[in-house]
Amino acid sequence: MPDFQSRFDSVCQRAREAMQLQTAADTLEWDERTGLPHAAGEYRANQVASLRAIVHGIRTDSSYGDDLTWLMGHATDHNPHSDIRATVECLHRDWDRDRKLPNDLVQRTAEATVRGQQVWDEARKSDDFSLFRNTLNEILDLKREAGERLCEGTDRSAYEALMDEYEPNASVEDLQQVFERVRRPLVKLIEQVTQSEKQPNLKAIEGVFPVQDQRDFSHRVAEAIGFDFDRGRLDETSHPFCTTLGPHDCRILTRYDPHVLSSGLFGTLHEAGHGTYEQGLRTDWFGLPPGSYASLGIHESQSRLWENQVGRSQAFWQWLYRDTQQTFSPQLDEVGLDSFYFAINAVRPSLIRVEADEATYNLHILIRFDLERELIEGSLPIDDLPEAWNARYESDLGIRPDSDADGVLQDVHWSAGLFGYFPTYTLGNLAAAQLFATATEQIGDLDELLARGEFRPLLDWLHQRIHFHGRCFSGNELVQRACGSPLSAEPLTAYLTEKLGRLYDLPRG
Ligand code: ZN
Fold this sequence. Notes:
mainly alpha; 20 helices
């Protein structure tokens, strides 16, 4: 009878092998989204699907499952939240989830979603939802089937079962409550801001910003906040993302608009924030739960914190603005720091989520959260989706898309099969504000540090409280431990009320 240690080593070995193959598939996908010749798409889809099927085979192997089940019964000698206990519990949880999905379904989903992203890209370029309709419908059927298999015998809905992959144990009811506590104050705040007589001059940050200068600048800024270019790189794609291909290989991707500086710059800060989390995970546990991110909500909290709480702060621009003016001279020669700072914090309802300001952003998420739930539940027919989308934008944000490209086709997520993913963005915004507020209290002179370009103390603080723990704690537990209170809507609404109140001269109270 093998003892605990040998069984534990054996499951770790197999989990690491699965991760080697998974990151190989991820590398192929990174390549697919950065420079794959158009005609190579179909073969690439097959390659990725084959690799993912092998990974699925390892993770659902019955002897692997037997070992994990045995370890679950014998792990109680180890402390809760210890590396060993977390490894056993999380791997068992993943195994239990994976085994409910037959290999055939996993493979068909992988093929459909790689193809789906290519079809989506073409449909978006042609501004025509009908080109994407059948592919999306196929993906929806596959995800619905997955959700139904995963929730069988539990009290979870198919949509909640899909969410579990990104935010373990999140409930639709809880999310609706938290979102409502965010939505109400934000709607009021946005209304006040829109009606204020004091408005930023957005022309100040539009003009000519040569892409090569933006590349160099973004690279410099990402490096300054702590993204390690010896262990990662920055590239370009149509829809920015971050992917980790090995313990010392984190890839971040952004996109540049030659006429708008903020899109590429904040896109880079956002992805570099994700990157600092990945690079802060413990490499000796790479491929295992203690060396993996806790949840997508926590991942997003790291990107949002660097993009917004840091990147849109006055202190940050006290440090960076002179360099910015020099880099993009003569474009910004006549634009003062205050005008620039106001312009990058402008709040104005818009159609595109990834370019939305901090205040309206969460309204974009609420729309997607509702629509994708209705699509999975089947209460929203796919042919009604574009109109449902446009109608919600009109009612929630007061603006209506006049094209599919700026409407229902703007995000890659659904084409990639990512249903249940969107709500993690708002969870991330909430956690970012709460973590930053606590860091400000505990570090003390954070503003002065940021104004001097000293980001290390903040990065270290996040490393100790978040990155280091991997999956040993849940997202909620990490926030609770770091902040001494559970995740709440209040820090985000307080932060926005204070900052926007100051910028827009809003009445207090
Ligand atoms: Zn993100």
